[in-house]
Automatic annotation (TrEMBL):
<dbReference type="Pfam" id="PF01852">
    <property type="entry name" value="START"/>
</dbReference>
<dbReference type="GO" id="GO:0032367">
    <property type="term" value="P:intracellular cholesterol transport"/>
</dbReference>
<protein>
    <submittedName>
        <fullName>STAR4 protein</fullName>
    </submittedName>
</protein>
<dbReference type="GO" id="GO:0015485">
    <property type="term" value="F:cholesterol binding"/>
</dbReference>
<dbReference type="GO" id="GO:0010879">
    <property type="term" value="P:cholesterol transport involved in cholesterol storage"/>
</dbReference>
<dbReference type="InterPro" id="IPR002913">
    <property type="entry name" value="START_lipid-bd_dom"/>
</dbReference>
<dbReference type="GO" id="GO:0120020">
    <property type="term" value="F:cholesterol transfer activity"/>
</dbReference>
<dbReference type="GO" id="GO:0070508">
    <property type="term" value="P:cholesterol import"/>
</dbReference>
<feature type="domain" description="START">
    <location>
        <begin position="10"/>
        <end position="207"/>
    </location>
</feature>
<dbReference type="InterPro" id="IPR042555">
    <property type="entry name" value="StarD4"/>
</dbReference>
<dbReference type="GO" id="GO:0005783">
    <property type="term" value="C:endoplasmic reticulum"/>
</dbReference>
<dbReference type="InterPro" id="IPR023393">
    <property type="entry name" value="START-like_dom_sf"/>
</dbReference>
<dbReference type="GO" id="GO:0005829">
    <property type="term" value="C:cytosol"/>
</dbReference>
Amino acid sequence: MDQLPDAAPLATKLRNTLVQYHSIPDSEWRVAKRTKDATVWRKPSEEFSGYLYKAQGVVEDVTNRIVDHIRPGPYRLDWDSLMTAMDIMETFEENCCVMRYTTAGQLWNIIAPREFVDFSYTTSYEDGLLTCGISLDYGEVRPNFVRGFNHPCGWFCIPLKDYPSHSLLTGYIQTELRGMLPQSAVDTAMSSTLANFYSDLKKALKT
């Protein structure tokens, strides 16, 4: 079990990595899935042997409210169907914490429930917000769960200039589920999970 990292340099490095992903040219991405709520692209990850996914869609709400539903906090468990439990293990400051959460089994339980311990950081970006995270090897792994690992991930939420009550939400996700899994099953699950994330979030914001 590792010690907790120093929060400030980790937060800075994480933010810089996400901004770098955000500037990857369109030509490097390949479409993985399109729905009425979002488009999902992917490209080979430079962090591990899987993919870096990019998801994007317009969400009808103000930036702060959207990000409050995504980042660690009371809203997330209410609407995110994939997340089954979450607790904040450490809080460094208001916008920076370590959380442990568990996810439901997927694809008829081909993908068993997973546990993650993530460092999470929320900061301003342009006219909006960026909430981002990375997994830590911290804390005991609970029985009945495989410990997954999120390489740098994050969500940029920027108000639309002409429609400030609408926001462009762009996510970058690269999750190493670990355990014995066929890569094709993981890829199918990731694209669908990201598309469903947008439809579930939109429903939650309307309630």
